[in-house]
Amino acid sequence: MMNFAVVLLFTASCFAWSSAIYSSNRDAGPKKLKYLLETLLHADVVARRGENATLPCILRAKPSQYKVKWTKLEPQRVGREDVVMVSNAHAFKPYGRLGGRASLSKAHDMDASLQLRGLELEDGGTYRCELVYGIEDESVVITLRIEGVVFPYQSGSGRYRLTFHEAEEACAQQDATLASFGQLYRAWTEGLDWCNAGWLHDGTVHYPIIRPRPACGGDLLPGIRSYGPKDKTQDRFDAFCFTSLTSGSVSYVPGPFSFRQAGLACQRQGGELALVGHLYSAWRFRDYDRCDGGWLRDGSVRFPVRSPREHCGGGVPEAGVRSFGFPDQMEHLYGAYCYK
């Protein structure tokens, strides 16, 4: 497989961009905006799960008759557009999954910005604010980036056991979603180096390499290796999952416990065994650092390291969440990472 790997190297500008289009004919080339202000200074809105976000769309002038349509652009989606909201000068109508958490900002008379409440992992992506007046329209495009962390995940049965849909489910069970390529790219720029290929949200398979080495990148330059799109029902790989800030907290209960005993220990603390996504979130957003291996709900044993030091980090100089894999749940004894 390695001989067929392709190194994908992109500049960061590929993932923070905006476009502004005014056209009376959709086949015509871009023209200067007439009614909407360009959003170049605010093209990349960043927020965490659970927070609120405002996607800017400001009118510089108002047509006599118009409506504003907000749409989430889904390149992988086939069929109807994912419309979030349609409004005019007097009222608005929400649509779809996002509509119930969406409203117009209306900070002033020319403000058509979209407000999203209680952000979820799936809300990240590209949004279009379209001003429609008569047979003409113009639009601006804004990217909403959910701040989070990407982590590799494999089945307890071993390496490369997950079909695409099984990978989706595995991430969901760990309070995460399959990562996008943009999220994996950002994680690579922040230090993610991993030799096992994993599914992404769009059905492609990749793995990020910072330090090429034998059997892991070979003589190729650092980058994101790609196997391209794979068969979602037949091919099997690991997964790259993405999660963000959580509303709860993670704590450690010293053992030694079997897996079952660890679950009971967390219940006595008023919580439950943490998910892998919970531990990564605590490590990333709350600087959680603990040198003790502990059971998680999927049967794996891990520990988070923010400040690698002697005898704490397995000899790896980078911060991260270390894993002991999936030990025997009766014979091996560890502490417990609890979530509440």
What distinguishing features does this structure have?
13% helix; mainly beta; seven-stranded mixed sheet; 340 residues; elongated
Tell me what you see in this structure.
The structure is a single chain. With 340 residues, this protein is mainly beta. Helices cover 13% and strands 33% of the residues. The protein is built from 5 helices and 23 strands. The protein has helices at residues 96-99, 164-173, 181-189, 259-268, 276-285; strands spanning 6-8, 20-23, 44-47, 53-55, 67-73, 82-87, 92-94, 102-104, 114-116, 125-133, 136-146, 149-153, 177-178, 198-199, 204-209, 223-229, 238-243, 250-257, 272-273, 294-295, 301-305, 320-323, 334-339. The strands form 4 sheets. Strands 1, 12, 13, 14, 15, 16 and 17 form a 7-stranded mixed sheet that branches. Strands 2, 3, 5, 6, 7, 10 and 11 form a 7-stranded mixed sheet that branches. Strand 10 and strand 11 form a beta hairpin. Residues 1-29 have low confidence and may be disordered.
Give the amount of beta strand, in percent.
25-35%
Note the main sheet.
7 strands, mixed
- In round numbers, the mean pLDDT is 88
Q: Count every beta strand, where a strand is a DSSP E run of 2 or more residues.
A: 23
Give me the number of helical elements.
5
Distance between the termini: 43 Å
Going by helix content, strand content and strand pairing, the class is mainly beta
Low-confidence spans: 1-29
Fraction of residues in H or I helices? 10-25%
